[in-house]
Amino acid sequence: MKKLFAMCMAAALLVCACSSPKERTIEMPAMAAVNTTDLDVKKVELTDSNTVLTMNVNFRPGWWIRIAGTSKIVADGKEYAMLTADGITPDEQFIMPESGETEFKLTFPAIPLSTQQIDFTEGTDDGWRIWGIDVSGETVDMQGYPSSLPKSFINKDLATINLKPEMKAEESTITFKVLDYNPEYGNKLEVVMLDMAGQNTESLKLDGSGTATLIKTIYGPTTIMASLDNLTPYWPTGITVLPGENVEMLLDPRISVTAQMNRRDENFRLPASTYDNGSLAALNQNSALINKYELSVFDPEKFSWKLDADEFTDKLIAMHNEMADSIKASTELPENIKQYLLADLDLNTLSGLANAKHVLANSFYYTHRNERNADARDSIKCELGDEHYARVAKAVNLDNPYLPMSSTMHEAFQTDWSKYVPSKQAAELYAFTKLYKDASKGQLSETQIDEAKKMSSPFYADAAVKRNAEALKAIEASADLIAKLPDADNDKLFEAIVEPYKGKVVLVDLWNTWCGPCRAALKANEPLKSGELANDDIVWIYIADESSELNKYLKMIPDIKGIHHMVNSDQIQTIRKQFDVDGIPFYILVDRNGKATGHPDFRDHSKLVEGIKSAL
Fold first, then answer.
1. Could you give the 3-state DSSP secondary structure of residue 524?
2. Helices 459-477 and 446-453 meet at what angle, rounded to 10?
3. Separation between Cα atoms, residue 87 and residue 43, nearest integer Å
4. Number of H helices, E strands in the chain
5. Residues facing 521 on adjacent strands
6. Which is it for the CA torsion 333, 334, 339, 344, positive or negative?
7. What is the structure's pLDDT at 271?
8. Starting from the edge strand earliest in sequence, which strands make up the sheet with 239-241, in order?
9. For residues 460, 464, 466 and 471, what is the CA-based torsion angle, rounded to 10 degrees?
10. Lesser CB count within 10 Å: N end or C end of the chain?
11. With a cut of 50, which residues of the chain have pLDDT below it?
């Protein structure tokens, strides 16, 4: 009996010894989510004495990075402060080499070897963060479906969906849910809605489970994208929904690590970044297949910035024809999807020509990406004329009934293509795009409504009237946030805006909601008003123009303390010429005597502070 007991004990000890956690090294660990495209975890080493993270950074050559001395890792809720750094000095600027890539090691105290995941954070509000670094030592399939995704949301049967445009303006309910939600991802969800004629933005607050609901009128087929405030700030794909639908949209936070995964393996692909249960779910989840047949005019390697107008048009039409042949010959696409893709191809071709200068500028900056002062304005020689627009209009099918299904329709129909090829649909889509733009600003007139009622579909008038009512309601609710513009001619408008504050120092900030650097600068400058530049003799004036999407503008300005003006396109162009504005954000400093000077150098935060102090 004693012998049997001893054998059992020995076996038990052997099992314990075999199953106890061991020291290990994890190469290229899986990650759940990140707030940066620049930082990656190349290796994690777990030992009894310490934990070492080998970090890889991809960033612009000649620019600096910095790692905070407050950096730490979190394992099972416990924090472990950084002990040492090798290859970088904490809290000091590190200039990126010409390769645009660097590597350094961070050492932390030992964590329990039973730990399955860790988080990394610099411990600062704007610092790098990586969540869910897998240190289990097990193989993790980063390219599979999320384990928390209900199987009912996986739908790829393209043949069954109806892609004919729903020309209606009806209320829809969209319920958003972040899969495997971590409250540290943030609770603010920014929703971008691209419909037939423009863009609307909504900000939602997630509850503790990572869920939020939006009830809103949908104007025709609408693409919806959503981004979390603390993650890499975009979702590269969205879903298309139809008016009147009640849809659940599930977001996979792993999409935020796409840049890092693609650097590890250029063939990395998630099955999808969003999942839904709407009538077009199969289309939305087949983005990898659909993208194969898209004409991406903004690919910087497709068009050389040196092309003239004839060369650009030739290449655009040749690319269109080649892709059209590929779609028609495909054996993997159902017929309904072919028609949809041909319409999308036509729209991308039209918008590609209309945006030729932007396409070529994108190519220029990509080619000169390592040159800090490169300027495309004097380098682009593509001057388009009516003959180029006519050639492209003849190369596409302006009467394709699937055209309104694409979210790029509003981009394509900023131009009246019916001037070059007679088409009732093209003429109406162009007219509706202009109509809807005015409605989105609450500026729709009775004459415009009467004209819309004469169009072939009642949708046009119905959508414009409902959108106008939405805009007027939002403007009325925010009336006290926007200062009334002085009654002055355009060339005297700026002086009239700043005149009431003579005797004080005025900083005028030219910005727009769509400008990423503007938003970053606003966030950086806001604390100055209650800190270093807290002074009643400083007046902060913000001027945006009507290219800013109204709904987003009205939601942003309550958090920007100062005097807000919105001007029209003619007014902002006059101000731009007056101060030789080279881009935004752009700052104009007005001294106590009323002398105004443009300051592009104030994009440097320290120079802005120094300049305002000097003027006091």
1. helix
2. 160
3. 15
4. 17, 25
5. none
6. negative
7. 86
8. 198-205, 188-195, 222-228, 239-241
9. 160
10. N
11. 1-8, 10-18
Number of Cβ within a 10 Å radius of residue 352: 27
**How far apart, in Å, are the Cα atoms of 250 and each of 273, 284, 615?**
8, 12, 52
Q: For strand 101-109 and strand 78-81, is the pairing parallel, antiparallel, or unpaired?
A: unpaired
Structure tokens, 437: 């733009």
**pLDDT tens-place string over residues 463-519:** 999 999 988 988 888 888 899 899 999 999 999 999 999 999 999 999 999 888 898
State the residue for tokens 């400058």.
525
pTM, two decimals, is 0.81
Tell me the pLDDT tens digit for each residue of 219-277: 888 999 998 888 876 555 689 999 999 999 999 999 999 999 999 998 888 888 899 99
* Cβ-Cβ contacts under 8 Å for 610 (sequence gap 6 or more): none
The two structure tokens encoding residue 276: 């839904």
- Cα distances (angstroms) measured from residue 128 to each of 40, 226, 261: 10, 21, 17
Q: Compute the distance between CA of residue 140 and CA of residue 120 in angstroms, rounded to an integer.
A: 19
Q: Kindly report whether the peptide bond that precedes residue 422 is cis, defined as omega within 30 degrees of 0.
A: no
How far does the chain reach from its first CA to its final CA, in angstroms?
94
Residue 438 exposed, middle or buried by CB count within 10 Å (0-12, 13-18, 19+)? middle
Give pLDDT, residue 16: 46
588 neighbors 565 (Cβ within 8 angstroms): no
Structure tokens at 585: 């954000």
Neighbours of 532 (CB within 10 A): 11
Q: Encoding tokens for residue 280?
A: 């077009």
Alpha carbon separation from 100 to 92, 96, 300, 318, 526 (Å, rounded): 18, 6, 19, 35, 31
Helices 335-354 & 386-395 angle (0-180, nearest 10): 180
d(CA 463, CA 459): 6
Q: Where are the alpha helices (DSSP H) in 400-549?
A: 409-412, 424-440, 446-453, 459-477, 490-498, 516-525
Cβ atoms of 68 and 58 within 8 Å: the answer is no
- Residue 497, φ and ψ in degrees, nearest 5: -65, -40
Phi then psi for 198, rounded to 5 degrees? 165, -160
**AA identity, residue 414:** Q
Q: What are phi and psi of 431, to 5 degrees?
A: -65, -40
Asked whether the bond before 585 is cis by omega within 30 degrees of 0, the reply is: yes
